[in-house]
Automatic annotation (TrEMBL):
Keywords (A to Z) from UniProt: Cell membrane, Membrane, NAD, Quinone, Translocase, Transport
Designated gene of the protein: ndhJ
Cited function: NDH-1 shuttles electrons from NADH, via FMN and iron-sulfur (Fe-S) centers, to quinones in the respiratory chain. The immediate electron acceptor for the enzyme in this species is believed to be a menaquinone. Couples the redox reaction to proton translocation (for every two electrons transferred, four hydrogen ions are translocated across the cytoplasmic membrane), and thus conserves the redox energy in a proton gradient.
Record's protein name: NADH-quinone oxidoreductase subunit C
Enzyme class: translocase
Recorded catalytic activity of this chain's protein: a quinone + NADH + 5 H(+)(in) = a quinol + NAD(+) + 4 H(+)(out)
Pfam family of the protein (one): Complex1_30kDa
Record's subunit section: NDH-1 is composed of 14 different subunits. Subunits NuoB, C, D, E, F, and G constitute the peripheral sector of the complex.
Length: 312
């Protein structure tokens, strides 16, 4: 502290002392009372009291809280504007796909005094317009499709027709129960073979010059509730063609001839179908369980399977 700002020192006069050593004009008993009644003032170096500092701190905190509260409506309005703009873009995109002019949207007010009800109404309106535009686009596509126009044949339809003709000629006229193109499976040709004709059909699929299905990619059992079936996914490495063959069997006594001697892949796959579905494969060299213990009761992947121990 500099000399100029240093407070002036005040000299307290010393009261006269009597013969008995006590100050004249003052009683000894009155000193504590005056000391207690004297106000205590805590001052800082700058001369300001502690109460003033706490008052200033409270004022600054209230100002900060007020500024944060004033920012909340603006942030809410900005979020509402972004949501409305996003919904408007979706509506315009759907309308463009349908070949219609983009629907007009109501701009959301950006003022700080916009209420939450107006924001909700704007969002609901934009969402309704987007839904209406999508529905109109779907309706336009449905109307444009002429029901009288025949469906275009699959690019693999000639492949399926030739497969059916070869199987009927080599394995028997009644060998093919059903045939179709599975469009969801990359237009793969599917045929359903009668179980009694399956051994000869398998040899035809592998050995015929136009088929050459020399690789069994997968064999899987399926529980259709009314019956069981096995799906064989075959691949011709020579012609780069893929087929799917299905063989149905009875649910009570399921049995399909084994093709493990035609495609070695079928060995373990047939054991798995036997283990999990209970399908018998006559002619298999070693038809035993492959996943469950030998003393396991039932077949876990059948839809009517009930475990003996529900906690297992």
């Amino acid at each position: 502290m500099s000399e100029e700002n240093k407070p002036e020192e005040t000299t307290v006069p010393t009261p006269p002392v009597g013969e008995d050593g006590k100050e004249e004009g003052k009683a000894v008993g009155s000193e504590p009372a005056k000391a207690e009644s004297r106000p205590v003032e805590n001052k800082t170096e700058g001369g300001e009291s502690v109460g003033a500092e706490s008052a200033k701190a409270g004022s600054s905190e209230s100002q900060a809280a007020g500024s944060s509260e004033s920012k909340t409506p603006a942030a809410t309005d900005a979020a509402a504007e972004r949501a409305a703009a996003r919904a408007a873009r979706l509506a315009a995109r759907a309308a463009a796909e349908a070949g219609e002019p983009a629907p007009a949207t109501t701009a959301t007010p950006a003022s700080a005094d916009a209420g939450s009800d107006e924001e909700k109404a704007a969002k609901a309106q934009a969402a309704a317009e987007a839904r209406a535009a999508r529905a109109a686009a779907r309706g336009a596509k449905t109307e444009s499709a002429d029901p009288s126009t025949p469906k275009e044949p699959s690019p693999n339809q000639p492949l399926l027709d030739r497969l059916v003709a070869i199987l009927k000629a080599e394995a028997g006229e009644d060998a093919v129960v059903e045939s179709f193109i599975n469009e969801r499976d990359a237009h793969r040709p599917y045929v359903i073979i009668h179980s009694s004709r399956w051994p000869q059909a398998a040899l035809t699929l592998r050995n015929h010059e136009e088929l050459r299905c020399d690789y069994l990619r997968n064999l899987s059992g399926v529980d259709q509730e009314t019956h069981l079936e096995v799906a064989y996914h075959l691949l011709s490495l020579t012609h780069k063609h893929e087929y799917c063959v299905k063989v149905k069997t009875d649910r009570e006594q399921p049995s399909i001839p084994s093709v493990a001697d035609v495609w070695p892949t079928a060995n373990w796959n047939e054991r798995e179908a036997f283990d999990l579905f209970g399908i018998d494969f006559p002619g298999h060299p070693n038809l035993v369980r492959i996943m469950m213990p030998d003393d396991w009761v039932g077949h876990p992947l059948r839809k009517d399977y009930e475990p003996l121990d529900p906690e297992v």
